[in-house]
Design goal:
Residues 1-252 form the EAL domain. This protein has one domain: TIM Barrel, CATH 3.20.20. The chain contains eleven helices and nine strands. It has helices spanning 2-7, 50-60, 63-81, 95-99, 103-113, 127-131, 135-147, 163-168, 178-183, 190-203, 216-224; strands at 16-25, 31-42, 46-48, 88-92, 121-125, 150-156, 173-176, 207-210, 229-230. An eight-stranded mixed barrel has the order 1-2-4-5-6-7-8-9, surrounded by four helices. The longest helix is centred in the first third of the chain and has 19 residues, at 63-81. It binds guanosine-5'-monophosphate (G) (2 copies), manganese (II) ion (MN) and sodium ion.
């Protein structure tokens, strides 16, 4: 309850920030874009971890205005540092945000206000969206894709999504959960699982992102398994926006 109260109206109080983690092309070593990750520092509680406050904000509905703030800030930041490059920004969205009938319009309006094409945006959704068969989700995803927004399925492999869901929903990207990536250092079967996932993704026309890459060996195995994009501490930590510019030039 304490967290729930502290979150009420938080987006108006200068307590939220975004950090950005690079997404790197595993063939070519170029920068594909950044995932925006929300950070909250409460004046008395100090930094609160997203794993702690996001579920609370989802239950109370506070994630809706907070999510607007995230999109607004991500669009503003992207407009400031994109500078003629085609780097993209990925933003996590909660199912409740996607259920609002006006969500696609809001996304379009926010990006238009900053002069950034919605095709520079990827929205990351969770498997919960695919499990709960609401027409509102399908409609929102279709409308967003018409705007040029890409849709990524986050943490793939942790939940229960049957493979059939993957072809039923309009998706562009599969983010392979870091549990699979971690297994690459220790479990002999991990490589086979990974290759099965990238093979299936490619057959469905989906690009793949390997998450949570922490070692050079994981990076090499992901690249060898046909994974398209990498993300993780071994490549780069999430960074404040004013530290991103040098990354545009870097070859990974
Ligand atoms: O950034 P990592 O630090 O700890 O994020 C933890 C969890 O919080 C992840 O599951 C991530 O998807 C989620 N998350 C981070 N930023 C956002 C956000 O802006 N909106 C939503 N809905 N979830 C977020
Ligand atoms: O659920 P989602 O994938 O949106 O959350 C991304 C989360 O993963 C964030 O909490 C981010 O800080 C975290 N993260 C990013 N790279 C790594 C990594 O290499 N290792 C671990 N353990 N976590 C990571
Ligand atoms: Mn994510
Ligand atoms: Na993820």
């Amino acid at each position: 309850l304490r967290l729930q109260q502290a979150l009420h109206g938080v987006e108006e109080r200068d307590e939220l920030t975004l950090v950005y983690q690079p997404l790197v092309e595993l063939r070519g070593g170029g920068l594909k874009g950044f995932e925006a990750l929300l950070r909250w520092t409460h004046p008395e509680l100090g930094p609160v971890r997203p794993d702690e406050f996001i579920p609370v904000a989802e239950r109370s509905g506070a994630i809706v205005p907070i999510g607007e703030w995230v999109l607004e800030r991500a669009a503003r930041d992207l407009a400031a540092w994109r500078k003629g490059t085609d780097v993209t920004v990925s933003v996590n969205v909660a199912p409740i945000q996607l259920r609002s009938a006006t969500f696609p319009e809001r996304v379009a309006a926010i990006f238009a206000a900053h002069g950034v094409s919605p095709s520079a945006l990827t929205l990351e959704i969770t498997e919960r969206v695919l499990l709960d068969d609401r027409p509102a989700y399908m409609r929102a995803m279709a409308e967003l894709r018409e705007l040029g927004v890409q849709i990524a399925l986050d943490d793939f492999g942790t939940g229960y999504s049957a493979l059939s869901y993957l072809s039923r929903f309009p998706l562009d990207v599969l983010k392979i959960d870091r549990g699979f990536v971690a297994g690459l250092d220790s479990q002999p079967q991990a490589r086979a699982l990974l290759e099965a996932i990238t093979g299936m993704a490619s057959a469905l026309g989906l690009r793949t992102v390997g998450e949570g890459i922490e070692t050079a060996r994981q990076l090499a195995q992901l690249a060898a398994s046909g994974c398209d994009i990498g993300q993780g501490y071994h490549l780069a930590r999430p960074l404040p926006v004013d530290e991103l510019l040098p990354l545009l030039e870097r070859v990974w």
